[in-house]
Amino acid sequence: MNTLARPEHSVKRFAELRAKLSTAQKFFRQQVFLNPKFKWYSRTIWAISMVWALFLAVDSIPYYAAIYAGEVAFKSGDYPEAERQFQIAYSQSQHFYTCDLRRARACNNLAELYRTEARYSEAEPFYLAAISMTKTFDSRRAEYPLALSNLASLYRDEGRYREAEDTSKQALAVWDTKVKRGKDLKRAIILEGLGKTYRDQGRYHEAEKVLTEALMLARQVLSPDDVQTAPMLVNLGRVYRDQGRLADSEVAYKRALSLDQVVYGANHPYTVSDKNCLAGLYCDRNLLPQAEYLYKDVLSARTRLFGVQNPLVANSLTGLAEVRLKRGQLRQSHNLVLRAAEIQLAMQGPSHPELGRSYDVLGQVLTAQGNYADAAIAFQKAYRIRLASLPANHPDVAYTLLHIANLKLKCGSIEGARKSALDAARWMRSSSELSSRKSILAAATSLVSGTTSTN
Fold it and tell me: Which of 22, 41, 252, 317 gives 20 to 30 Å between its CA and that of 344?
């Protein structure tokens, strides 16, 4: 019966074999490679190496030309040209080794492009392919955790927030246990992605903490004026806005807009996104002419960049609808939010949180128009989507409940209004987000007081 050798015997045998191999290598180097009689051998090896290196360089020229041209087009916002060049690079990469970095880069670039254009089903296979390839690289390399972080961004855009959080945490864990480069911009980028997933789930305190860490790390590596800090400023600004810290939010947004505008120009997607954020902030502050001006500018740019059927266009349409609602332009607001919901339903599906937002705004418009029956339908759609797609204690669910309570009060359903207001308060009671909890509890208390005085 064969048995496994004892461990100490195996170690001793391995050491003997390694010593013999080292002796053979030394003999070959001294007696052959360095021997003047065998100059032909070393020269032949050198010549073959040079020819092979030259072949590899020439073979890679079409790939590098396409990948570089595609990245330049992508950064300038020319997405059709970027796709054309990335497809060429991807095609060229197919005759490289399966797990070649060039092949992974081509997959990742196509995935990023498709995600930007909201072509999510096309993006995911390329992200997964990039992850599969980079996972085989040396564990100290940065490509694998970055590929995971990119996939998490796709999950966020699709409203798959729990998966996005898990994947972002996995990326950070791989970085901290394998790559182990603490002061690195790539780690800041992974942290930024995790912070965004916290914000999506209404966990604003955690989001602020992680995003602040990402920004501080980026500023240690870069200068404070580097444009690569702009996305972190924008995401911090979003958290500040969610927390009701509107002055802090405006400072962060304007700083990001200034950086992006200088480097990319006024019509680049990054700059346009900054303007969209600032427009939403102005709407919150009731600076309605400024908000409307920016939203119109953003809509024009996004339609030109992405076409009409794009979630980013829909997001701006809903924002402009909110401005028109506040200005009392109800018919225009109604038309805008219906267009937004139609795009979101087609591009993002019937359960995406962005569609829930549009239905909630539609319910507010219909309430203001006195169309209470349709408003109730719109609010119920918003409530179902938000309840299903957002985690417990997310303030957006509570805000929809408050809107439903206000509608019931207008319809004369005093008890129904009180119940919905109390449901909103109960929803937020265990929330760790103090600012959101306070504002919603105050609104619920006001509504309950209104029902009591009506009685």
Answer: 252
